[in-house]
From TrEMBL:
It comes from Mycolicibacterium chubuense. It comes from the Bacteria. Gene3D superfamilies: 1.10.150.130, Intergrase catalytic core. This is Tyrosine recombinase XerC. The lineage of its organism: Bacteria, Bacillati, Actinomycetota, Actinomycetes, Mycobacteriales. The gene is xerC. Residues 96-336 form the Tyr recombinase domain.
Length: 360
């Protein structure tokens, strides 16, 4: 089952599965959109699905109906008569903004996840997860999506001399009803290879050499999960749960149980849904590590088309729309440096003055 079919089974057929394609109306699609915005995520955490998932599911529905039109099952696409906009997909996330981190913030966050909060921190003791601290750096300096990172296997790291290293994005993994489902990346361009900076290449080589107990197994998960048992003592004290190297890491759980406390320890707001006692906090999300990669690359002068390829965006226009404001002026951003055009050659006008004396 590919990604599109899985999206239909998970989010669409419950609302539209009893209808013939020719019977689907704009009213049915309006009802579907309302249900999507209210639907809980597949992680079982009782949170609404993300705006990106809503938009992705809607795009799949539109493509299915467009295919039906092209093959004569529908006269017109009913999705074209539904006003879908970004605000329809956002629900409680209507005011969400990107929160790319600085290099200093990435370093502080990685240290906090590893068990080393900043000096002066007086909050609850943070459990030490050095492997996850490395994961924070990996996500911020490769720009992989959560499902892509979960799908990585040991053989997806390609080492060269130096060492140099790149990571191949060839699959996704998503946990559904407690079972890991292997899928394909979002688009053809999402299947890509991303180079690691030299310092991260060395750290990944050390990680496989000294920390990863299954480094000699090409299909072993690159990043481990945690064993069941939770991360809290009865008194509320946090402690590190042993790692499970047989399963991929569920990135949603990683964000909630490990990254959120570390974000708050380093003074960064973690994103939290609204409750009856407090409004939503629109802070740093896991996906912001991907935004961090894009912004750091563009700010360093890397060409937008190259950044787009590394991100696996379907089009260069998408990258420009999302990150155009981060292109520095000296690298083709807001500065207009077109040269002055050359001045035209002035032709001498013919004179109508007749000299009074002829020479010679």
């Amino acid at each position: 089952m590919d990604e599109y079919e899985r999206q239909l089974h998970t989010y669409v057929l419950g609302e539209l599965g009893s209808l013939a394609v020719a019977a689907v109306t704009p009213a049915h699609l309006e009802k579907l959109l309302t249900a999507l915005v209210r639907q809980q995520s597949r992680q079982g955490d009782k949170k609404p699905i993300t705006p990106g998932t809503v938009k992705h599911v809607w795009d799949v529905v539109r493509r299915v109906l467009r295919y039906a039109v092209q093959h004569g099952a529908l006269d017109a696409n009913p999705a074209d008569r539904v006003d879908f906009s970004a605000s329809r997909a956002t629900g409680d996330h209507a005011e969400f903004e990107h929160h790319p981190l600085t290099t200093a913030e990435v370093g502080a966050l990685s240290a906090a996840v590893s068990g080393y909060p900043p000096e002066g921190y007086d909050g609850p003791e943070l459990p030490a997860y050095p492997v996850c601290g490395l994961l924070v750096e990996f996500l911020a300096y490769t720009g992989l999506r959560a499902a892509e990172a979960a799908g990585l296997e040991v053989a997806d790291l390609r080492f060269g001399p130096g060492p140099t290293c790149s990571v191949r994005v060839a699959r996704t993994k998503d946990r559904k009803n407690g079972v890991w489902v292997v899928g394909t990346p979002k688009s053809k361009r999402s299947r890509r290879t991303v180079p690691l900076p030299p310092w991260l290449a060395r750290r990944m080589a050390d990680y496989l050499a000294t920390d990863h107990p299954r480094a000699d197994e090409p299909t072993a998960p690159l990043w481990p999960s945690r064993k069941n048992g939770g991360g809290y003592r009865p008194a509320g004290e946090r402690y590190a749960v042993p790692l499970d190297w047989s399963q991929p890491l569920a990135l949603g759980t990683f964000y909630d149980t490990i990254l959120k406390p570390a974000l708050e320890a380093v003074g960064l707001p973690a994103s939290r849904p609204a409750t009856k006692d407090a409004p939503a906090t629109r802070g740093v999300r896991l996906h912001d590590l991907r935004h961090t990669f894009a912004v750091l690359q563009l700010s360093a002068g890397t060409h937008l088309m190259q950044v787009s390829k590394w991100l696996g965006h379907s089009t260069y226009t998408l990258t420009l729309d999302v990150y155009g404001d981060y292109i520095p002026e000296q690298d083709g951003g807001a500065a207009n440096t077109l040269p002055e055009p050359p001045a035209p050659v002035q032709r001498a006008e013919a004179s109508n003055v007749v000299p009074l004396r002829r020479e010679g």
